[in-house]
Specification:
- 2 copies of one chain form a homodimer.
- The first copy, chain A, folds into 3 domains: 6-175, Molybdenum Cofactor Biosythetic Enzyme, Chain A; 181-253, 2-Layer Sandwich (Alpha-Beta Plaits); 258-409, Maf protein (Alpha-Beta Complex), CATH 3.90.950.
- Chain A is 40% helix and 25% strand.
- Chain A has 15 helices and 17 strands.
- Chain A has helices at residues 14-17, 24-32, 50-63, 81-89, 97-109, 157-175, 193-204, 231-245, 258-269, 283-290, 294-297, 307-312, 317-323, 328-341, 391-409; strands spanning 6-12, 39-46, 66-70, 94-95, 123-124, 128-131, 140-145, 148-153, 181-188, 209-216, 219-227, 250-253, 273-277, 298-303, 346-352, 366-373, 376-383.
- In chain A, the strands form 4 sheets. In chain A, strands 2-1-3-8-7-6 form a 6-stranded mixed beta sheet, with helices on both faces.
- Chain A starts with 5 loop residues before the first strand and ends in a 6-residue tail after the last helix.
- The model of chain A has no long low-confidence stretch (mean pLDDT 89).
- At the A-B interface, helix 1, helix 2, strand 2, strand 10 and helix 10 of A face helix 1, helix 2, strand 2, strand 10 and helix 10 of B.
């Protein structure tokens, strides 16, 4: 085990210090490093400034085994990561003929001549090997020197992330052979993060096990990583324990999404689905269309943000008058209307208040999910903290979560 | 001007180093500091570890005038920010009776007894004054010592952000009185970030002016901040220059959103809108329902992700057969069908390919917007880089952007 192998991320870019972009590379890499048995102990963001970047790199070399830099590999004079690594290591930059050839080929393929300053992207130092970047003009660097490793990657996440997966991860795995590291994720909904955190505490003490709790739009994810020869066994045991602990809340694991789960079940049973939404404003239909099998089961969605539209689509006027648009009764009628209007087997609806308004004198955050199927209708009520910005997406997730529950109840699951 | 007043952000939390959450506080604060004429030169993320946090604070004190910490103010033994500030400054922590009273009152109001370890949140050091936190149990600290200022804020963004605005910003403004700092944002669409960056370069050289370029879901935003007595004048001049430079791409400024603009115009003219979407899967209707006046103009939205649904809603079958669902012809028919089906004055449609698929032999990233109104129909074609994760939301923005253009063309704007 390499748990004393310490990593540090250095994010380079004045634009980060102006708040122009959020540093998603750092959180991406931070979530990846535990899989390699590497401990991340520092993230530093520094400007495109020669003196400051050199200082940060020197400090990082002094306290960390692996330094991962993101950014500063562009072609301009403000792109200083290569220069500073060379300075800190006391090595000289020189143009690598093979990198230059590749770079010129890349520009030719784009139908453009290579601007001369781009030659800055074709340099190396003696201790560095280049890491190919199929999505951009900046190759990365892998540098081994004095028992320290520096990995320099370009800043754009769409370049950095595949380079991390395809180039850096295999090299780090080769460095720690025989180390078996496995992970699993359990996904929950309708349980609070604080409660998950509390219940998961005992697991933090287990040797060879790392636990992470991630608050995602589709609920709280619990990730657990096991090291060593009995990693598989540890994962199985932990999964069983967590599933028991969180049983009514667990809806999936690893790469599962709620929309994939319900669309697979529906498609396998030859059933179709239609939606009518208010309060989630299209996000429910949008989620469903993300599922790979959605075209096999999704008849379509209606967004009925006004009472007139609800009436036009078959929600009875007296129900709205009597109970208000945000009510179990109207959610029920919306689900039935969607089912009928779009000739689907199942109608799914949402109605709720996003934001801080209190229309109809109802509390902000109040929402309903309705389901209409051959066996009747069902509704669920929920109250979101009104301040939460993601009340709409939570509403869409809630609808899919309830649909999953309903399909289980009706015995319509397939595995 | 206080441009040599240097700030550093210290984000505290092992969960950040595990990638469980992305550090949005840092980018929030980074975007705020220029308004105060303060330069952010470093962001450091450190674990909940006494030795490491003290080390980071010592280094920050040595090189920065203002240190803003986020996190580590909770009630547990892992919450070490208070302890480390005290250690680094050589001061002693003691319970502040007034803070204790407020904390106990807060728990009483929540109907709970205060757990004894929460007393950790009621401590101060002699150099610290507390900053009220109406949304949580952790008050912040404002510490002045040895010409350095430390501001300690809790980690949850919904606590940190209002405390920054309401407590910290006024204190920092009072420290630099007479400093007039104003800002404006110009919002563009359909122009590439690299092009904006290039055209904006000359402005970076202007004294008393700071420029930031932000890539947002609704396009590239250009923010400019002016300092000093002639700040207003500088902003006006800069705005006029930028508007000329980017004229066909500029759609709004400051707090404008495309959905607010088009819904305001439509509502003021008594016109109604209906949508039919494919490829944007509900995001277009969702954006429209975000507008405060949407209920006055939005008749509803149809999500037609399958050809059957398009047919059911009145798109002619032969058009789909002849041109494919992703075509200008079908976008046109969808707009017309939405308009007719929902008795609206204007129909707006999207059809396109999200993701890397190539259905119908068409290139991934191809998309169309259609508009149908009293004067006929119009369509626009666009090609997104297929890899982009936000192709769907870009499609919805594109539809609103084209609707805005169309309303201008028809003379239907109101100001």
């Amino acid at each position: 085990m390499s748990s004393r192998y310490k990593a540090e991320i250095v994010s380079v870019g004045t634009e980060l210090l102006r708040g122009e972009i959020t540093d998603t590379n750092a959180s991406y890499l931070a979530a990846e490093l535990p899989f390699l048995g590497i401990e991340l102990h520092r993230v530093v963001t520094v400007a495109d400034d020669h003196e400051q970047l050199c200082q940060v790199l020197r400090q990082a070399m002094a306290r960390s085994d692996l330094i991962i830099t993101g950014g500063g590999l562009g072609p301009t004079e403000d792109d200083l990561t290569r220069d500073c690594i060379a300075d800190v290591l006391g090595e000289k930059l020189s143009v690598d003929p093979e990198l230059e050839r590749q770079l010129r080929t890349m520009f030719t393929r784009m139908g453009r001549e290579m601007p001369e300053h781009n030659i800055r992207q074709a340099v190396l130092i003696p201790s560095a090997v280049s890491l190919p970047n199929p999505r951009g003009t900046a190759p990365g660097w892998w540098v081994d020197k004095d028992e320290k490793t520096i990995v320099a990657l370009p800043g754009p996440p769409r370049e950095l992330m595949p380079m991390w997966r395809n180039e850096v991860t295999p090299r780090l795995q080769a460095r720690f052979p025989g180390e078996s590291i496995l992970s699993r994720i359990i996904k929950t909904f309708t349980v609070a993060e604080a409660r998950v955190s509390e219940l998961v505490q005992p697991f933090f003490k287990a040797a060879n096990l790392e636990i992470g709790i991630y608050s995602k739009p589709d609920g709280i994810h619990i990730r657990f990583i096991a090291h060593g020869d009995d990693a598989e066994q540890t994962l199985d045991t932990t999964e069983a324990q967590l599933e028991e602990l969180f049983s009514p809340y667990v809806w999936g694991k690893d790469d599962d999404t709620l929309e994939e789960i319900v669309c697979n079940w529906l498609t396998n049973r030859g059933l179709t689905l239609a939606t009518m939404e208010d309060g989630t404003g299209g996000l429910l239909a949008g989620s469903i269309t993300e599922a790979s099998k959605s075209s096999g089961c999704f008849r379509g969605g209606l967004i009925a943000s006004s009472s007139e539209t609800k009436l036009a689509w078959g929600v009875p006027e007296d129900l709205i008058k009597q109970h208000g648009a945000i009510s179990a009764e109207v959610a029920e009628a919306m689900a039935a209307a969607a089912r009928e209007r779009l000739s689907a087997d199942i109608g799914l609806s949402t109605t709720g208040i996003a934001g801080l308004d209190s229309p109809e004198g109802k509390p902000p955050g109040l929402a309903f999910v309705g389901i209409s199927d051959d066996h009747g209708t069902r509704t669920w009520q929920q109250n979101y903290p009104p301040s939460r910005a993601d009340a709409r997406s939570r509403g869409a997730v809630a609808a899919l979560f309830r649909l999953r529950e309903r399909l289980i109840e009706l015995g319509l699951t397939t595995s």
